[in-house]
Amino acid sequence: MASTSSPSTMTGTSDPPEMSERIRNAADISVIVIYFVVVMAVGLWAMLKNNRGTVGGFFLAGRDIVWWPIGASLFASNIGSGHFVGLAGTGASSGIVIAAFEWNALLLLLVLGWFFVPIYIKAGVMTMPEYLRKRFGGKRLQVYLSLLSLFVCVALRISSDIFSGAIFIKLALGLDLYLAIFILLAITAIYTITGGLASVIYTDTLQAFIMLIGSFILMGFAFSEVGGYESFTEKYMNAIPSIVQGDNLTISPTCYTPRADSFHIFRDAVTGDIPWPGMIFGMTVVAVWYWCTDQVIVQRCLSGKDMSHVKAGCILCGYLKLLPMFLMVMPGMISRILYTDKVACVVPSECVKHCGVEVGCSNYAYPMLVMELMPDGLRGLMLSVMLASLMSSLTSIFNSASTLFTMDLYTKIRKRASEKELLIAGRLFIVLLIVISILWVPLIQVSQNGQLFHYMESISSYLGPPIAAVFLLAIFCKRVNEQGAFWGLILGLVMGLIRMIAEFAYGTGSCLAASYCPKIICGVHYLYFAIILFFVSILVILGVSLLTKPIPDVHDRETDRFRCRRGKARRS
């Protein structure tokens, strides 16, 4: 143990400065500075171009955005730094199957553009909770969904993006973690607070372009380094770390040997890390929540010039979602080949030596590739790509969260608030979100638990299915009423929180140590749990609705009017 711990201490103090020194050259710094200048210029241009003095102008960009910025913004809002770090890390650990989460979005983007958005637009809503209020009547559904959406923003989206961005910044720049995060959040907030959704969408478009260029270049370097696709598939299956025993542990070969099904999308229904029934059905349930009812995504579509532009934007984003397999997952797998001892470490003391985390260093797969493989200048471009993905996601979240707070919660507190007061409240709420985000960082560092992308998807599986059930039934089942929707959401939330809190309390376990979470709570895969939660929510919503009075006629007529308009929109 003495021989293991002393090199770890020496390496721990010398490695990060060596890494960060590589970014401190004129070429890299120049690229990063130019990137920030261009992004701020685009944000200012969008800010001056659009009318931000009205609520519609600030929160929905005046509903004047054409198809290509909508598609690019949908893609950039979705692909945060969590995807670069998480997809590459899980790819390094278990192969290509994680890309199924990205490909699953293709179908749901079409459902969003052709079914959901026409209903939202005809209902004349700015937020998803507002739609539930118009569909069902009453206020508690609107308040409930607003509060839950804000919780998801902080606990899932902001936390995972900041954590993954911090990994890269810490490795690349050698800055103090909190200083780097504070600077990024401050710059991100400036053009979100001042410019509203228009500046967010146009800067998203620029950042999507930068992300694609940078990650294509890195993919080319990675495949070139490993010797092409055939060599890549062969070498990955043999990427086993040199140190596989230590710390008085008996480590099974399955913990450090690449999975036999690494290049399979459809995996065993029982033993697979992402079982195929869960991938087809559970993943789709979560995707309905994310792509069709989530404020961050839907808000981009609501800003469209007309339905033709919205549909074209959804199609563009769908095509872009084919790329993460090749731009993120496979480069992550190549990182395991090139830096096996670091990325695929299995002995806890070795992992602490390389990245300061006992459970594994797979989250460092993509940042390692950038720092070790890219030449000067291009390394700066890739850092800009990571900054772009982090900032585009955060701007989208900040803008959408402030919309939810202002339109769904603040208007309940101040019923006669002027437009100016609403705009000020929305901007101040962004500042509050930033403070909460910085305070959340220690919690993320504690719960980094192995693979970031599995963390993100599991939390989505515990919170999203009841919301997906309510929205689907709201659109396709006229008999569903407010009581049914409310109690379906409440029971679904309780079930999801029980599973989520149990996993936080007991841990999800790892290859070296099993979780002590009771089997009755944690015994099924999170994607299977999403399916169960979805159908339980549907049964409760329908059961309570049938046992209580239908919606009053005024709401029936309003709902029918939305459906009639939707039919006319389709025929035209």
Task: Give a structural overview.
- The chain is mostly helical.
- The chain is 76% helix and 0% strand.
- It has helices at 2-21, 26-49, 55-60, 67-78, 81-94, 100-103, 105-123, 128-136, 140-173, 177-226, 229-236, 276-293, 295-302, 307-320, 324-338, 340-343, 348-355, 365-373, 378-413, 419-446, 452-463, 465-476, 482-506, 519-522, 526-547, 553-571.
- Helix 4 (67-78) packs across helix 10 (177-226) and helix 9 packs across helix 20 (419-446).
- The N and C termini lie far apart (74 Å).
Low-confidence stretches: 1-17, 52-62, 555-559, 561-572
How confident overall, as mean pLDDT? 80
Number of strands: 0
Helix content: over 70%
Instruction: Name the helix and strand elements from N-terminus to C-terminus, one letter apiece.
Output: HHHHHHHHHHHHHHHHHHHHHHHHHH
Number of helices: 26
Which secondary-structure class do the elements indicate? mainly alpha
Biggest sheet architecture: none
Through-space gap between termini: 74 Å
